[in-house]
Amino acid sequence: MNPKIALRIHVSSQSGARLLPPLLERLAQYQANATFLLSLGPDDAPFFSRLLVSGEVGKKAEAALRAIEDQGFEAGLSAWDAAGWKKRAARADSADNPWIAADLDKGMAAFLRLFNHPPQIFGAPDWQAHRHELRLLQRFGFQAASDCRGSHPFVPIWQGEPLPCPQLPTTLPTFSELRQKGESGEMVVESLLTQTQTPLVVWHVFSFAAEEAG
Description:
The chain has helices at 14-18, 20-29, 57-60, 62-70, 82-89, 98-115, 131-139, 175-180, 186-195; strands at residues 4-11, 35-38, 74-77, 121-122, 144-145, 157-158, 161-162, 203-209. By secondary structure, the protein is of the alpha/beta class.
């Protein structure tokens, strides 16, 4: 049986949003679907200084982002502030972090303004999930999340507490992870395809940033 590969594409910058038109065109060309997880707040592009305000991705790239659903693909939400989330989630140890709810509130509002409906799927930047976020997903009405790495879908349980929003983990390594191992060019593709040939696994999730589409 040929494996199914779901695409999880993260957009967290204006530069990534500018690459959406050719990326959407290429996906359509090969009749490939994808879910785009959007960080709609401060631009996460590495070339912006911490001292500069680059503007909100959701406002600076409205047309490109709306094209995702206009062309039949799925749009979901990632953190409002992707860079801030990655820095804070890894260190957050309190069970109730108000910044998480505030981030989700802002992201939900921006998503609703763009698409006129709430998002159905959430994906934490760099898979930096937090137990308070997992509790809030159901309350915010998300139907699924992709917050972690793993081998199969599951429902999280934290210290005996079921957190009922199901998780669809990323199963394959990313382009950058394979390059760090010294692989490049066609070797990256061949390595990915080889890892999809596990007999007991018939579906995979592959994740990359829109900036990598270049």
